[in-house]
Amino acid sequence: MLQTQWLTFGVAWLILLVGYYRLLAVPNRTPAQRVTVLTSLGYLMVVAWLVFAPVGLVLPDSYKDLSYFYMVPYNLHPLVHVDPEFLANILLTGPLGVYCYLWRPHWSWWQVALAGLVPGLVIESTQFASDWLVHTLRVVDIDDVITNWAGLVLGYAVVWGLDHTSLRTLIKPFRLR
Q1: What is the pTM of this model?
Q2: Which end of the chain is more exposed for a tag (fewer CB within 10 A), N or C?
Q3: 95 near 155, Cβ under 8 Å?
Q4: Backbone φ/ψ region at 135: left (φ over 0), alpha (ψ -120 to 50), beta
């Protein structure tokens, strides 16, 4: 029997698969561009599993001052406690910045900064809603929004920097535009 806690995870995967079906059907993609599309799908599916699959045991961050909204724990005190999870979230969304560059290499820096907010806001608001509706045992944390933003911006900046060196010939075939 399917547990309702897995509903958010299943819906996220379904949205990814339906969305990527259109991207895979685009004709005239080079093999390198297909690699970009397929690896970004794989990456996003792993991220969906990491952030939306229910956790088995709740170990709320005892050192964080958590508030509760209808039994959903959340932290709205930014950057009070920096821990290994802080760096892990930056590393989690760094590849998303790489894919953003490969998909949209000509974004201005304000567009990159704005796009960097999207993953954290989507993940945390979805975790909040799913925990409120089906109790997925997740903590909604403002630090995650900040670190997800930092990861995307850093990933984009690294590939942008590499694309302005002699490595451009290695990066260009994987760009979709």
Answers
A1: 0.85
A2: N
A3: yes
A4: left
Per-residue CA distances from 66 to 59, 61, 69, 86 (Å): 12, 8, 10, 16
pLDDT in tens, 82-105: 778 889 999 999 999 999 999 999
Supply the angle between the helices 7-24 and 31-52 in degrees, to the nearest 10.
170
For 20-39, write each residue's pLDDT tens digit.
Answer: 888 777 888 999 999 999 99
Angstrom distance (rounded) from CA 25 to CA 78: 42
The Cα angle at residue 76 between residues 75 and 78, in degrees rounded to 5: 100
Range 96-115 burial, b when 16+ CB lie within 10 A, else e: bbbbbbbeebebeeeebeeb
Q: What's the distance, CA 157 to chain centroid?
A: 16
Check if the beta carbon of residue 12 is closer than 8 Å to that of residue 52: yes
Give me 157's structure tokens: 């900046």
